[in-house]
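Section 5: illustrative case.
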């Protein structure tokens, strides 16, 4: 068991902690706690939806402000069957 525990010392790519992943997931945990106070269940669903959109923007290298501006400027003229074109991953 000790041999497996010191693998990180023998391989410079392995880290003895998980701080990187904890830092990436911390906003999710904080958001989850804050969503208890959004007002109502439907407000929480709206907040969750936008949180998901902004996380998708980040994953796809899309500026969330520019994406949201684009959506608000184009959503009325976009046919219902073409709304997927407005998703953040479609703009990248």
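Designed sequence:
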């Amino acid at each position: 068991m000790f041999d497996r525990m010191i693998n990180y010392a023998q391989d410079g790519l392995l880290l003895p902690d998980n701080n990187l992943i904890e830092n990436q997931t911390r906003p999710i945990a904080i958001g989850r706690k804050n969503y208890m106070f959004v007002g109502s269940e439907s407000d929480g669903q709206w907040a969750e939806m936008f949180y998901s959109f902004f996380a998708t923007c980040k994953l796809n290298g899309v500026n969330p402000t520019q994406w949201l501006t684009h959506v608000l400027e184009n959503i009325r003229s976009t046919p219902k069957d073409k709304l997927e074109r407005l998703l953040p991953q479609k703009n990248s």
